[in-house]
Design goal:
Keywords: Membrane, Transmembrane, Transmembrane helix. By secondary structure, the protein is an all-alpha fold. The chain contains four helices and no strands. Among the domains are: 30-60; 68-109. Helix content is 69%, strand content 0%. Helix 3 runs antiparallel to helix 4.
């Protein structure tokens, strides 16, 4: 029985891997899957939530880097002038209509 065990041990030692990679035996290219998984996960999350954040910011009138879009800023300034009494309601509505027509024409082009 002991000769059988020693023969099996010798056979296993003869067939043992002699090349060890930089991460030891058994890792090989699998080691690259761990960082690849995290890169893909964060890239997917950024693509989903980053797009959602940019889309909601654009719908609220904000451009890149938190600045207000020019059309929205012009409407705000016009509303402030109307609230102060600098212009009357007829002039306010006429100017607002011009601003919105120009903003629609610029985005449709």
């Amino acid at each position: 029985m002991s000769t059988t065990i020693s023969a099996l041990t010798a056979a296993a030692a003869a067939h043992a891997p002699t090349h060890f990679g930089p991460w030891g035996p058994g890792f090989g290219w699998w080691f690259l899957l761990i960082p690849l998984f995290w890169v893909l996960l964060f890239g997917t999350l950024f693509a989903i939530f980053g797009r959602r954040w940019r889309r909601s910011a654009a719908q609220n009138g904000y451009g890149p880097y938190g600045r207000t879009a020019p059309a929205r800023q012009a409407e705000t300034t016009l509303a402030e002038r109307f609230a102060k009494g600098d212009i009357d309601e007829v002039e306010y509505r006429a100017r607002l209509e011009v601003l919105r027509a120009n903003a629609a024409g610029a985005s449709g082009a």
